[in-house]
Amino acid sequence: MDQFLQHGLNALMLGGTYALLGIGLTLIFGIMRVVNFTHGELYAFGAYMMYMLVMLAGANFFLSLALAVVLGVALGASLEFTLLRKLRGADIDTTMLVMIGAWIALQNAEQLAWTGVAKSIDSPFPAAPLVIGPVSVLWNRVFVFVVALALIAATYALIHHTRLGKAMRATFQDRDTAALMGIQIGTIHTATFALGSGLAAAAGALLGPVFVAYPTMGDLAALKAFAIVILGGLGNIAGATAGGFILALAEELGAGYISSGYRDAMGFVLIILILAFRPTGLFAQKERIG
Amino acid sequence: MKRKAWTFLGATIVCAALFAPPAAAQEVIRIGVTQPLTGAFAASGNYVVQGAKIAEDHINAAGGVLGRKIQLIIEDNKSNPTEAAATAEKLIAKDKVPVMMGAWSSTLTLAVMPKLMEYGVPMLVETSSSGKITTSGNPWIFRISPTSEMEAKAFTPMTKSLGIKKADFLSTNNDFGLGAAKEFSEMLKSQGIQVGVMETMDPKATDFSAQIAKIKASGGDTLFVTTAVEQITLVLKQSKEQQLKARIITTGGSNSPDQLIQQAGDAANGSMHLVFFTPWFPEAVKNADLAKKFVAEWNARKHHVGGLTEGFRGWDGIMTIAEAIKAAGKAEPAAIQKALWNVKVKGINGDIAFIKQGPAGKESAQNIPRVYVVRIAGGKVVRN
User: Fold this and answer.
1) Which tens digit of pLDDT belongs to each residue from A180-211?
2) Range with lowest mean pLDDT among A131-135, B164-168, B198-202, B297-301
């Protein structure tokens, strides 16, 4: 029973970060129809910015967190501006190839800048875990969980309850009509990509201090994010959030009670099963955006 | 424009012909090196290369081998088995190296091995520990690092002194991790020690909360962990998070205790590590003078202090290869292979010499290295 409770708590903590990774990707993948292979690199970028600000510059932890996200947004915006803007209207294969190239280039740039040695980032939270009866969790993870939920809620509100969100949804529903209504299409594309990138950087900046920062850290994170997006239905923020928690629970219980060798396979087995019965994902009603 | 290009080309050829040294006398001896310089094992692979370069400079400063300078041709296998095989192909077919060193991880080394058979070129294996490497019948393999079986055997007396009653395992899910878990669990069982759960983790994973919860529930007094330093750091931190009481012992020698102290902090205290070089007390190794000199040179070059436990492998490997070329009298694959069988080299780990392993008639060569156990206490590495 103790083990089960610990698995449950672990799944909850992990689910929050998976959801955060998932919603950033679902915005870009689902709404812009761009298969964003750089998502994992933005995640690593966020972690390295934390390392640079906290460990090298000695800045305040929480200020660094905010700055890392801002820098992630800026990197996302410049990627969209320099690479994707020229490819608008190009077929999906071309865009995908360019994004794969950007992924490789970014990962190697990280390696060049920071070397392959993993970097650890100090956090202001107590090293002793929070103990609740038979289970325990790091204070830092509780913080990550809370911030992740807040960011997810803020993103949901942005997409559904602001003019910018409405403009985003309109643009990707019907670009020509949106343009005729006076929406600046170029700005919306950049804003969406920057927002998704910022969320990935936020996940990295939050998790960097929990784990360590290293150049290939984004690979597995991106893979999970893709899984979550497919699970939740493309472009569906609530779906991606639920998908994140479902994947975390499947991994925890699968590893705990079946076999840890298949821990990372559990989630994908689940996806195959769900897609076999609901080809558009668990939560997608129709081809719908938002 | 076209004429200009031709003039330029002509001038270049003339210059090259005038200034090129006579080929035969000055030609360098090339040694191929394939290491993971990018990807998951990048940190370790770069350390091995740094150690190898110290050996290269040392040999060349002393006049080289057979009156010729040596030159390392270093290829990045990107921590990827497919790339590892490709680098071997490139080094052998294009660079015409007569001997190689590589490929760090067991999985990478196993991927390179068929190429050695195909082209008939010997490779010195400086790191990998999977038993399969020297038992699969590849006569071009010369391994200086210990097998997991050797590590387990060296550790046997300590099971009593540590009073181990029940042990659990957490291993990276590849040839290295699974091989070590198999050898160590068999050794423990032969000592009448109970083996609890045997958990694995993806080599790229960072969250092991599920595995640790399961290990905690199993309730062993000792947890054997086999993976590279990055994952060990996280295992230590996350074990502390879940208040795992078991003593953690890491195997495989790619555990860089300095880096663990730096990055896992308090969580590293109390953990024990099997290592093949003890730079903290170089006087403890067999060839202490050599070890001290190497540590001094490493520090003079401002390499990362946590890399010494990997870097020494590069030195030992290249020195062994150089010795074999000297003994062979010529830089040709078959001659070097033959000579390697008889080399006796004073290495940093200890004295290097090869015994036969694997099926008769196509044996691989295996060195019997020394294995040391160190402990982290109060943020310092101490002798056990």
Assistant:
1) 999 998 899 999 999 999 999 999 999 999 99
2) A131-135
The three state secondary structure string of A69-106 is: HHHHHHHHHHHHHHHHHHHCCCCHHHHHHHHHHHHHHH
Burial A108-122 (b: 16+ CB within 10 A, else e): eebbeebebbbbbbe
Residues of B within 8 A of A131 (CB-CB) are 243
Give pairs for A7-10: CB < 8 Å, separation 24+.
A7/A252, A7/A253, A7/A256, A7/B210, A7/B213, A8/A252, A9/A132, A9/A135, A9/A137, A10/A137, A10/A248, A10/A252, A10/B209, A10/B210, A10/B213
Percent of chain B that is helix, strand, coil (3-state, to 5): 50, 20, 30
What average pLDDT does the segment A62-78 reach? 97
pTM over 0.80: yes
**Residue range(s) of every CATH 3.40.50.2300 domain in chain B:** 26-146+288-367, 149-275
Pairing type for strands B141-143 and B364-367 reads parallel
- Residue B82 pLDDT > 50, yes or no? yes
The region, left, alpha or beta by phi > 0 then psi within -120 to 50, assigned to residue B277 is beta
| Two structure tokens written together for A95 | 């865009």
Give the Cα separation of B234 and A217 in Å (integer): 13
3-state DSSP call for residue B244? coil
Do residues B131 and B82 lie in contact, with contact meaning Cβ atoms separated by under 8 Å?
no
B26-146+288-367, CATH topology level: Rossmann fold (3.40.50)
Distance CA A153, CA A221 (A): 21
Write the ipTM. 0.84
Distance from CA of A203 to the nearest CA of B (A): 14
The answer to whether the Cβ–Cβ distance between B210 and A131 falls below 8 Å is: no
* Type and span of the H or E element at A268: helix A263-277
CA distance B71 to A134: 59
Nearest chain B residue (CA) to A142 = B241
Question: What angle is formed at CA B183 by the lines to CA B181 and CA B318, rounded to 5 degrees?
Answer: 95
Q: How confident is the model at residue A233 (pLDDT cuts 50, 70, 90)?
A: confident
Q: Which phi and psi angles does B34 have, rounded to 5°?
A: -120, 120
Collect all residues of chain A within an 8 Å Cβ-Cβ radius of residue B41. Answer: 116
Q: Identify the pLDDT of residue B19.
A: 52
Q: Which class is B149-275 in CATH?
A: alpha beta
Contact A116 B43 (CB under 8 A): yes
State yes or no: pLDDT of A284 exceeds 70. Answer: no
